[in-house]
Amino acid sequence: LSHPTTGAEILSRLDFLDEVREIIWCHHERVDGQGYPRALPVEKIPLEALIIAVADAFDAMTTDRPYQKARSVQEALDILRGGAGSAWDPDCVAACERVLAWP
What we know:
It is built from five helices and no strands. The chain has helices at about 5-10, 20-25, 45-60, 75-85, 90-100.
């Protein structure tokens, strides 16, 4: 099982977290419908999951991992821009850029 599915299954035991469960389940879905675990069309992906997808990708790219050194903020933004409209929601990528440009 993928970690989005495992997380959603854990939260399914808590009735009051249904909306959060759906967000967690969808955070690796892509706007082009090629994501996982369900390959949803963008219309079925909650906005919160689209936002988390960008934040999660940015964090993964800019954090040292056992298999990869951290990329620079600029390099990560370039990758996000390149995937806007396919992997990530373009408005969410633009919002990420605005937040990172502050102040």
